[in-house]
Automatic annotation (TrEMBL):
Family in the record: Belongs to the peptidase S8 family.
Signal sequence, start to end: none
Domain Subtilisin-like protease fibronectin type-III: 62-166
Name this polypeptide is given: Subtilisin-like protease fibronectin type-III domain-containing protein
GO BP terms in the entry: proteolysis
Keyword Cell division applies: no
Highest taxon of source: Eukaryota
InterPro entries xref list: Peptidase_S8/S53_dom_sf (IPR036852), SBT (IPR045051), Subtilisin-like_FN3 (IPR041469)
Length: 172
């Protein structure tokens, strides 16, 4: 499980190109989708919690982090899929175009839409969708398998890497 976005290079960290911004509202959506009650969320945040936005976020995996993790419970299912929605902010040069490179976990199908992000200005935010499709593997009861991959956005100067980790579990 020692898989991340890479080593920190201080010089490159000063000019990342893209960042994954996150707000307190994103964390509230995460808590709502994690089945916390509005009362529990208010205890944590000390603010009124509104979970109506959370359905738009979809599920807990859509917290706007660079890394993406999916866990599939097999239960005799043959094909399974999930998706991740991410928003990146251009903190690099205006009029930059990033192209995606997909390194899927072995034996899994990963697609990204769109495959290019064209920014017109600094500070602009764009969304992308990552779909993960898996075919169940034969596992013994109570066992699991974890595989890793990544997606990388590059404009020729910057490379922004997002790890993708998929676990398949066969319940007892």
């Amino acid at each position: 499980m020692d898989f991340g976005a890479g080593h920190v290079h201080p010089q490159k960290a000063m000019d990342p190109g893209l960042v994954y911004d996150i707000s307190s509202y994103d964390y509230i959506d995460f808590l709502c989708n994690s089945n916390y009650t509005t009362k529990n969320i208010q205890v944590i945040t000390r603010k009124h919690a509104d979970c109506s936005r959370a359905k738009k976020a979809g599920h807990t995996g859509n917290l706007n982090f660079p890394s993406m993790t999916a866990v599939f419970q097999l239960y005799g299912k043959r094909k399974m899929s999930t998706h991740f929605i991410r928003t990146v902010t251009n903190v690099g040069e205006a009029k930059s175009v990033y192209t995606v490179s997909i390194k899927p976990p072995r034996g899994m199908n990963v697609t990204v839409e769109p495959m290019k992000l064209a920014f017109r200005r600094e500070g602009q935010k764009l969304n992308f969708l990552v779909r993960v499709k898996v075919v169940a593997m034969k596992l013994s009861a109570g066992s699991s398998i974890t595989k890793s991959g990544s997606i990388e956005w590059s404009d020729g100067k910057h490379v922004v890497r997002s790890p993708l980790v998929v676990t398949m579990q066969e319940p007892l």
